[in-house]
Every structure is written in C-alpha cells, then in structure tokens.
Write a structure and sequence with these properties.
The protein is α/β, with parallel strands linked by helices and about 160 residues long. It has helices spanning about 15-25, 65-80, 100-110, 150-160; strands spanning about 5-10, 40-45, 50-55, 85-90, 115-120, 140-145. The chain has one domain: Rossmann fold (3-Layer(aba) Sandwich), CATH 3.40.50.300. It is built from 4 helices and 6 strands. A 6-stranded mixed β-sheet has the order 2-3-1-4-5-6, with helices on both faces. The structure holds guanosine-5'-diphosphate and magnesium ion (MG). This is GTPase Der.
Length: about 160
C-alpha cells in the first residue's frame, strides 16, 4: 500500500498548517491555542508521481502540568506504529523547547526514519539560525514556512526521496 508519512511535534509548532499546505486543502484545524483535542487526520498526497498517505497528529489534551508530556508521548507512539517516515516539526520562532526533546526521544525509540522540519521560517534573508536544533540528534533541520508556503517544495522532494 501507500507509504505513510506522519507529522509529529509538540503543540503549536504548525503541524496542521503544514499538513494543509502539503495536501493542498484545509483539512486540518489550525488552532491558535495548544491543548485542543483533535483526532488524527489522514489525506492522500502526491508529489513527483509518488503517492503517500499524510497523517496529522494533535490531540494533546489540555491538562495539568506534566500530563501534557504524557499526552504527547502516547499520541506520537500510536501514530508512529504505522509510519514509514516521520516529519518532526519544530518551531524556529520559539527555538528548541524541552517538549521537543520528549518527541525526539520517542522518535528514537520508534526507530522510524525522521525528517527534521524547522517551521515558521517566514523569511530566508537573513538566513535562519537553526543551529540549536542539531542538539536533537535528528540531523539537519529543513527550514520551511507552512503558513507562507516557503520551501515546502524542497520538503516534498525530501519526503519522496525517503519513501
Ligand atoms: P499545531 O498545533 O502544531 O497543529 O499548530 P497549528 O498548525 O495549529 O499552528 C499553530 C499556530 O502557528 C497558528 O497560529 C498558525 O497560524 C501558526 N503557524 C503555523 N505555521 C506557521 C508559519 O509557517 N509561520 C508562522 N509565523 N506561523 C505559523
Ligand atoms: Mg494541529
């Protein structure tokens, strides 16, 4: 069947915005506030003649401190079970956050191929400073702006190259 590409990351990094951008429609709900329960959303996507299933994840339940981490952990683990490739989205605007390390640990444990995506790079001049994301041990971050559609063609190239 079609390869499965799962978008993961802590809340509010722009996963749903990226999902919508990559499938070319507003299928996922974009929330200004993190902590809203959402189901996983699936859409077929195609690039350079390669078809794949793209999966958005969210569903981190608003909860007392500490429980958010557990929510991320559970959902990412479930989504990754059927994944052929994970898009690990981080926020270039906020920089590296502790929850990013939680997601990175889960991805390492799942043992699936990962593409690190630095979202919210809304301008490339001057070049974005993404050096801190190397600390995640997920290789070179690929800068995009999901909201503005910047560099998302390069991201799609990188996705299909790994499938
Ligand atoms: P999710 O929780 O990871 O699914 O994040 P959302 O897609 O719901 O986006 C969270 C917030 O980030 C929303 O206010 C989006 O409009 C904003 N956002 C998403 N992508 C970008 C981007 O490329 N640039 C900027 N500046 N904001 C973005
Ligand atoms: Mg979302």
């Amino acid at each position: 069947e079609k390869p499965v590409v799962v978008i993961v990351g802590r809340p509010n990094v722009g996963k749903s915005t990226l999902f919508n951008r990559l499938v070319g429609e507003r299928a996922a709900i974009v929330e200004a506030e993190p902590g809203v329960t959402r189901d996983r959303i699936y859409r077929e996507a195609e690039w350079s003649g390669r078809e794949f299933l793209l999966v958005d994840t969210g569903g981190v339940v608003a909860a007392p401190e500490g429980a958010i981490e557990a929510g991320i952990r559970r959902q990412v683990a479930q989504a990754l079970e059927k994944a052929d490739l994970a898009l690990f989205v981080v926020d270039a605007g906020t920089g590296l956050m502790p929850e990013d390390r939680v997601v990175a640990d889960l991805l390492r444990r799942a043992g699936k191929p990962v593409l690190l995506v630095a979202n919210k790079v809304d301008r490339f001049d001057p070049p974005p400073a993404l050096g801190e994301f190397y600390a995640l041990g997920m290789g070179e971050p690929l800068p995009v702006s999901a909201a503005q559609g910047l560099n998302t063609g390069d991201l799609l190239d990188a996705i299909v190259a790994r499938l």
